[in-house]
Amino acid sequence: MQYFIQVVVDGVATGAIYGALALAIVLVNRATGLINFAQGAMAVMATFVAFALTRAGVPLIAAALAAFAFAFVLGALLERVVVRRFEGGDPDIAVVATIGLLVLLTGISAAFFGYEPHPFPSFFPLGTVNLFGVFLSFRSLGTIVILVVAMVALQVLFRSTKLGLAMRAVADNPRSSALSGLPVSRLLMIGWGLAAGLGALAGILVAPQLFISPGMLDFALVYALAAAILGGLDSPVGAVVAAAFIGVVENLAGAYIDVIGDDLKIAVPFAVMIVILIVRPQGLFGRKVVVRV
Amino acid sequence: MEKLLARRSVRLVALAVFAVVLVVAPLVSSPFINYQLALIAVFAVALLGVNIVMGYTGQVSLGQSAFLGLGAYIAAYGVKNGWPLLLVLVLCAVLPAAVGMLVALAAARLRGLALAMITIALPIIGIPLARRFSDFTGGSGGATVSFMKAPDWSGLANDQWRYYVVLVIAVVAFLLARNLVRGRVGRAFAIVKENEAVALAMGVSPYRYKVLAFTIASLLGGVAGFSYLVVVQFTSPETLSFFTSINLVAAMVIGGSASIAGTILGAIYFVVVPVLAGAVNSARTALISGAILLAVLFLLPRGLASLPRRVRQLSARKSHGRTGATAPHNSPDGASSAAPPEIPEIPAANEERQAR
């Protein structure tokens, strides 16, 4: 039972990382209606900024804040300079543009830091805490707490601030928002900036575990995409729940089903997902899209 | 009419020149160049599959690498067990097609991103499976084979012989696909892409044609896998990599969606750009490739195949001093009428956005 709880908590922690990235994907999708394949590469780039700063002797927390600022500016800039041109056109082309960004940004990270992985400092001490006989690692607990705080903050931003309301309006109907005087262009840039910041958070939290390299989040991106689509692309809560679900299912299957083991556990959440999507095509929490002729 | 005839003869001449180049090229180039040329023929077939699903039928497919890998593994297994090559080729076509059809039968009811997700899952599940069943696949180390050596009577080197083999496969695949997309099935694909409800009203079952498109794409993926093994003589779980699928999609859009010529251009792009970028600076391959991809999208959002039209448009703009409405598509592929005409509303919305 204790082992079970440990496995589940570790699964939620891994899932929380995917969740942050998935949330970033959902944010971008709501704002600009496209899937951003470069979300992970942007996050890695911001994490590299934190990496360079910590290596220069800046304390981790300051380095992380600088990375967020960098990510925000990067996201806003990419939206304005690159993505804007493809918005409202053929969605296939827009998605391929983000694939181009993925390759380009990975290349830029590699140009500065090389492809080999580097160790990255962690916010949390190694070791575990004993909660009612269950040993939980500081890293898992800390990751979950930080990401829950981030998600609550985001929810507050979207539900109870004027900025959030404006961003939701733009996501809903850019033309009407423009007519009622909202600065649509700037709001789209803010949306992308926020998403990039969330990605940077995921990158910094996962880097101590994975070691930082340009391709660090390539795999996490696939999970995050899965979580975003499984949760329903219009539902932030859904994305987070789906991400936790993926993390837990993967860990449980790896731990308890011998045939599956460590190598095949990746396949399990995806197989489950296929079944869920076939039963509920709109995702777990998504709204059904009504198609008009 | 005369003009059309002239253009037609021009096209025929161009086609003949292209054919001669394809046949003569390996005789005068180095083994390295022949290897790249053969790879273009390999990935052109895989890309043709992506284009049939995405470009012609409008369904997102991010799983083509899974079928490429499946085909390559079947070929490797067959070759190792000494099966006749023709049988191996047929199996490489039929088995991936069957897998693709099974997946599509379940998934084709879904639309858009849910469908995309299921196709993403294919390589993600496929890679650990390929590692696990090492008796069949050779595990993480992959499977190395040695076959398809040039027969003595041909007087060709291995690289030249293999190039001709995969070229013949590619040419056959392209001829069949061209007839398919120009005919009844192609028109059905186009209407499914345009509007499923309209398709239904016209008696075209979107479900059936989506399944058909996926099946054809998987078949082509499997055949490309066979060609891949012929050229590379090696396959590993890396062949299935999700990023190969993503890059195939990128190459499809770069070449030109719903266009046969665009598919060939896309394959050239897919193979040549990384090589070129590596030649410029091997440590900056990704950076240069990404920059090229974005540059092409900025200049030619409809793909390399739209270059002539784009040039005509620009020159027309210059001489008439006003932007023509989109030039009528008289693309040779017929089905390009499926490409939606540029919607005037959206640029207006964009201008509105930028106005503030």
Descriptive notes:
The complex is a heterodimer of chains A (293) and B (356). Chain A has 293 residues and is mainly α. Chain A is built from 12 helices and 2 strands; from the N terminus they run ααααββαααααααα. Chain A has one domain (2-279): ABC transporter involved in vitamin B12 uptake, BtuC (Orthogonal Bundle). A two-stranded antiparallel sheet of chain A has the order 1-2. In chain A, strand 1 (128-131) and strand 2 (134-137) form a beta hairpin. The longest helix of chain A is centred in the N-terminal third of the chain and has 31 residues, at 2-32. Chain A starts with a helix and ends in a 14-residue tail after the last helix. The model of chain A has no long low-confidence stretch (mean pLDDT 88). Chain B is mostly helical and 356 residues long. Chain B has one domain (28-307): ABC transporter involved in vitamin B12 uptake, BtuC (Orthogonal Bundle). Chain B has 15 helices and 2 strands. Chain B has a two-stranded antiparallel ribbon with strand order 1-2. Mean pLDDT of chain B is 86; it is low at 322-356. At the A-B interface, helix 4, helix 7, helix 8, helix 9 and helix 12 of A face helix 5, helix 9, helix 11, helix 13 and helix 15 of B.
Number of folding domains of chain A?
1
CATH topology name of chain A? ABC transporter involved in vitamin B12 uptake, BtuC
The tally of structural domains of chain B comes to: 1
Q: How helix-rich are the residues of chain A, as a percent range?
A: over 70%
The CATH topology of chain B turns out to be: ABC transporter involved in vitamin B12 uptake, BtuC
Cα separation of the termini of chain A: 54 Å
Helices of chain B, by number, come to 15
CATH class of chain A: Mainly Alpha
Backbone structural class of chain B = mainly alpha
Order of helices and strands of chain B: HHHHHHEHHHHEHHHHH
**Uncertain residue segments of chain B:** 322-356
Which blocks of ≥5 consecutive residues of chain A have pLDDT under 50? none
Q: Whole-number average pLDDT of chain A? A: 88
Strand order of the largest sheet of chain B: 1-2
Beta content of chain A: under 5%
Tally of separate helices of chain A: 12
